[in-house]
Design brief:
48% of the residues are buried. The protein starts with 10 loop residues before the first strand and ends in a 17-residue tail after the last helix. 35% of the residues lie in helices and 15% in strands. With 303 residues, the protein is an alpha/beta fold. The N terminus is likely disordered. It has eleven helices and nine strands.
Length: 303
């Protein structure tokens, strides 16, 4: 899933300095200050105050924005766009082409997508934030350029936001846990929801596509946070947004293996780090224990 693509990370908190962006790509999950990533950083707004009433789209504005980060997906991007266009009668498709060298951007334009192009890879999940900042729809649907998901599977996410009172519609996919060794990313997702006192969400998360958010959710979470999906997830919970797993799409089976990337720099560690960063943000808002009581523990006696 594109949740496992390379792009530079962009972090910003209200009234605090913008954090160094992440530029981890499939070939190398390192950090650097690349020019295109710096441009992407400037494109992402920080979290905005909530709108009192959702703004109704103008006649010429789309109801739904489908955001598709892409890096060298020429084999699938045309099919992905075809399905994206079917999710609603009023839709714009935004392709964020970063570091693409195989003609994916040209194919996307040919099939009617609005293409935002960066010559260099932006790093893991930054394309989501860039696309969100450029979107105009009242519903933002996030998918990946290397997974062809039928429109019938995507529509429930859009409809739950448009008509179901949902702010954040998640993929009801928690990952496999019925095995001797559970993947660390799956464990991290479950642990994060437990820390957030949302065990009902199990292992569902904004890390996995497909998912959709409302325009109000975008304004409150901030496009910058979408570059670090667990952080966006934590913000959504803390802000009291309505979050609901909507439909299960087994992206574990759809996600194409990236053998070279996983051999050199496993994306697993980057995503686990994302969860730690999200927990760090949470403790900054709620205290060192994340709002959990310390009971009557007399720690001073052990010093």
């Amino acid at each position: 899933m594109q949740g496992h693509k390379q792009k530079a990370r962009i972090m910003a908190k209200p009234k605090q300095p913008v954090r160094q962006q992440r530029v981890s790509n499939r070939a190398q999950a390192g950090r650097s200050k690349k020019s295109s990533a710096a441009a992407a950083r400037q494109a992402l707004p920080t979290a905005q105050p909530p709108a009192a009433v959702p703004v109704q789209p103008a006649v010429d504005e789309p109801v739904v924005s489908v955001i598709i980060p892409v890096m060298n997906e020429r084999r699938t991007i045309a099919k992905v766009i075809k399905q994206a266009k079917k999710v609603h009668p009023s839709v714009e498709v935004i392709v964020v082409s970063n570091g693409t060298t195989d003609g994916s951007a040209a194919i996307a334009r040919k099939h009617g997508a609005r293409v935002i192009t960066y010559a260099e890879p932006l790093g893991h999940d930054v394309g989501r934030g860039v696309g969100a900042a450029a979107s105009r729809g009242q519903v933002l649907l996030f998918i990946d350029g290397d997974m062809v998901i039928p429109a019938s599977e995507l529509k429930p996410y859009v409809q739950s936001v448009l008509h179901g009172g949902v702010d954040v519609a998640l993929n009801d996919y928690s990952g496999p846990t019925n095995k001797a060794t559970v993947h660390s990313v799956v464990l991290a997702k479950h642990a994060l929801n437990a820390i957030l006192r949302r065990p009902d969400l199990k292992g569902t998360s904004l890390t996995a596509i497909p998912h959709a958010i409302s325009r109000v959710a975008l304004q409150r979470i901030g496009a910058d946070a979408l570059a670090v999906p667990p952080l966006a997830h934590v913000r959504a919970v803390v802000l009291g947004l309505t979050i609901r797993p909507v439909k299960r799409v087994n992206v574990g089976k759809l996600n194409m293996p990236r053998k070279e990337r996983e051999r050199t720099n496993p994306l697993e560690y980057l995503i686990v780090g994302d969860h730690l960063e999200a927990i760090d943000w949470l403790t900054r808002q709620t205290g060192d224990r994340g709002g959990f009581a310390d009971m009557e523990r007399k720690r001073y006696l052990a010093r």
